[in-house]
Amino acid sequence: MGIVLTVSCYIASFSPSIALFYSFIAHDPVRIILFFLGSFFWLVSLLISSLAWLGLSTVLPNTFLVSLGVCIVVQELSRVAYFMLLKKAQKGLNKITRHGQISVAPGVSDLHNARHMLALVCGLGMGVISALFYTMNAFATFAGPGTIGLPMALETGHIDSNRAGKYLPLCYVLSAILLTLFHVAWTIMVWDTCHKIGRFPTAFVPGAAAVVSHLFVAFLSSLNSRGFYILVFSVQFLVLLICIAYCNVIMGGTIQSFVTAIGQSFVDAFTLKQIRNFVEERKMRTQQRQAVPDEPMTERGGASDEPGTSNTVDA
Amino acid sequence: MIFLVLTTTMGVVCYKKRLYKAITAYIIANSVSLLLVYAFFHFHNLAQACSIPMSVPSSVFLTFQFGGLGVLSLHWKAHRRLHQFYLVMLAALTALFLLKNLPDWTVWISIVAISIWDIVAVLTPCGPLKMLVETASRRGDNNFPAILYNSSSYVETPETPDTTRSHSTQLTEFSNSSNANLLQSDSLLTTPVLPRRTREVREVEGTIRLGMGDFVFYSLMLGNAAQTSPLTTVLACFLSNLVGLTITLPVVSLSQTALPALPFPLLIAALFYFSSHVALTPFTNLCSLTLILF
């Protein structure tokens, strides 16, 4: 096992985030910076909550679940804080993107049009860093010697089906995937609430749904150690699907369009549509390059600005 | 520490008296020795640790390739990415050398001391770096002779004025020596001091220039964290370094003056390092060992 297991775990657990990163973030430096800032905000929230855990554990005897609740609340607060920071920094972002550099999503100047994209960026930042913190130590020990799940079976003489046993890396990978995608969804929901909270009285619904689902998922996962991990993971993935559908509704789609889009993407993956598109694009580009007529070496007239007549100027 | 002050002042004096050749010779000698000798010993240790037998001719050949390309790309023209890569390599090798030979506490004390020195040297009126900056701008002389990390802006349009300017200002900054505590008798070099560049952070026509000394100390701190603590701490320190730098750079570009780029990111990174030992890692371990999502 060893290093191969570690590398494969990393690839499996971070491939959704890498895919999202390359599609939306990697081409734009401002978004990369916002991504890292999102990670930093999550880190700060973890710092605060772990200090709170440290403080509480000296006072109360059994504080783990309470401090978990505190951690989740602080994470949501840090999301809100990031939103406020971004709102204040709107003018600064305007200045950067108007210099004629690579343009960000067609309206960073107006947080309206791009707020879901920014929410995706921030959520991905938080998701990636939380997944990393969750799994890095475990994956590092996977690289070492030993077989997962062996000692318990040796001791008791049979394989206990309630223990994660040899499926432990899979559990970590699934948890990491869940964490990444959940953070993206929660950020979109919470930012929608923050955006609309002044104007509509029912605007707190998405944010409340995010907090409730976060708490639910976290406390559900505490059942993992008792062995019900299949049940726990399936429920968590179901909740993730519901959250993503809700985000789609927030962004303006409907459940019907969501289902259609999922079906379409399965069909596309099956028919290798993306590869075909890519190949066709390359063909078209080379054809275009060959179709450009060679420029005559003679000078053109001065009035060659008229559109559509540049190819017919007399020598 | 005293070495640092001495060599900084000596360097500024040289610059004022227009002893350019001495400076360039010093820089070239330092970078060559770093790239060749330290790289050789580092890769040798790596090969030993991974149980890869390396014969002498092949290791000499590889070192010569690596070092030769490095010297070429640093002191002469090279592709921008290659230049940046070799600057990063320089900083990393310096930090590795420091880490191997200094005990833990010394590393921390030197980090703190150099942050303070950075603030003093750049901001106070009598600091040598401020004098350097002022004399340079007074003379209208943009060709500082030394090595700076030059990250042109991310615009990819072929702006020839920008690239030629960045070429001419590539060999510009000043090197000083750090490493006050290292004076081993069996040191490999005749001059056991290591190059450290001034830490000017300036923006010229959209390019941001960062001194090499900054990189050395970021690498030093990260290397120290990697040696002594689990990976999560390293990640936290890395991220806080990055974010500290992200906060510092726009401040510099907005105020258009040279600012010390060192203390702020190191401060946040140190904060996260110590708190991670105490609070973050135990809490995270508690959650992840029992597969509880947080």
From TrEMBL, chain A:
It is a multi-pass membrane protein. Keywords: Membrane, Notch signaling pathway, Transmembrane, Transmembrane helix. It is found in: Membrane. Belongs to the APH-1 family. PANTHER family: GAMMA-SECRETASE SUBUNIT APH-1. Pfam families: Aph-1. It comes from Caenorhabditis nigoni. This is Gamma-secretase subunit aph-1. Residues 284-315 are annotated as: Disordered. The keyword Nucleotide-binding does not apply. It comes from the Eukaryota. The keyword Transmembrane applies. GO terms for biological process: Notch signaling pathway; protein processing. InterPro entries: Aph-1. One of its GO terms (cellular component) is membrane. The chain crosses the membrane at residues 6-25, 32-56, 62-85, 117-136, 167-191, 203-222, 228-249. The gene is Cni-aph-1.
UniProtKB/TrEMBL annotation, chain B:
The chain crosses the membrane at residues 23-43, 55-75, 82-99, 105-129, 231-252, 264-293. It is a multi-pass membrane protein. One of its GO terms (molecular function) is aspartic endopeptidase activity, intramembrane cleaving. One of its GO terms (biological process) is calcium ion homeostasis. It comes from Caenorhabditis nigoni. It is found in: Endoplasmic reticulum membrane; Golgi apparatus membrane. One of its GO terms (cellular component) is endoplasmic reticulum membrane. This is Presenilin. InterPro entries: Peptidase_A22A (IPR001108), Preselin/SPP (IPR006639), Presenilin_C (IPR042524). Coiled coil: none annotated. Keywords: Endoplasmic reticulum, Golgi apparatus, Membrane, Notch signaling pathway, Transmembrane, Transmembrane helix. Pfam families: Presenilin. PANTHER family: PRESENILIN, PRESENILIN HOP-1. Gene3D superfamilies: Presenilin (1.10.472.100). Belongs to the peptidase A22A family.
